[in-house]
Amino acid sequence: MQMSFTKPAATALLLLLAACAPRPDAATPPAEGTAPETAATPMPSPEVLAMYGAEEDDGRVIPAVDPKFLSDAKARQEVDYWTDEKPGTIVVDPWARRLYLVKENNRALRYTVAVGEDGRGFSGEAHIPYQREWPSWTPTQNMIAEDPELYGPVKDGLEGGLENPLGARALYLHRGGKDTLYRIHGTMDDSSIGKATSAGCIRLFNQDIIDLAERVRSGTHVVVLTRAQSGKGTVPPGQPLPPVDYRPEDFPANPTTQET
């Protein structure tokens, strides 16, 4: 679909859009273990800079992530992870802003994510029946009804691309044969990664969602932790869970499982 926005208007609108929720807002503190994004933040290692450098994908050039949004702790990496889940399972910890792809021998590949309110309001088990490369995005009818001025101009959807809020890939979560409307996807806003925001599901750097998508197969099992479970797997069995790094005002007091 051909959009009729002026470039500044389109850019402003797209920066506001969230893939899974109706209301955008400013980001809040970085995840535990990620350094504050200030001038004093240590420069990421050359390996991390290379990992998040510019890359071409399906004819599109994904820009390099600005080093000020990176740190060695935020980069995807293999870590110790103790779980009874089978290798290949994705475990999402929305409260710690981490995603784990379970491997063998008490190890996992860890990614840093940004989490919106919908991402914190969903918990439990699901599976990924399919994924999409450079997915299109369409606001729900509820979103359009709630804010027609914001979402009306894109009611027919946005084609996939660098300016799409779903980014380079989207993994679609289903439960009980139904779409949960919960997504794990890329982003057009690298500054949000590692933070809690008021809008959206679970998003990763485009470089990371491409890496994750290449490792995911149809039927992949997904477990989304509750706030009480946050940190599960990061310490050996029998040890107390690490404290959850959050401010009460940043998170809903009683997150509910999203059923559709």
From TrEMBL:
One of its GO terms (cellular component) is extracellular region. Residues 88-225 form the L,D-TPase catalytic domain. Residues 1-26 form the signal peptide. Keywords: Cell shape, Cell wall biogenesis/degradation, Glycosyltransferase, Hydrolase, Peptidoglycan synthesis, Signal, Transferase. PROSITE patterns: LD_TPASE, PROKAR_LIPOPROTEIN. InterPro entries: LD-transpeptidase, LD_TPept_cat_dom, Transpep_catalytic_dom. Residues 25-42 have a biased composition (Low complexity). One of its GO terms (biological process) is peptidoglycan-protein cross-linking. Pathway: Cell wall biogenesis; peptidoglycan biosynthesis. GO terms for molecular function: glycosyltransferase activity; peptidoglycan L,D-transpeptidase activity. Pfam families: YkuD. The active site is at H185, C201. Residues 25-44, 230-260 are annotated as: Disordered. Belongs to the YkuD family. This is ErfK/YbiS/YcfS/YnhG family protein. It comes from Thioclava atlantica. The lineage of its organism: Bacteria, Pseudomonadati, Pseudomonadota, Alphaproteobacteria, Rhodobacterales.
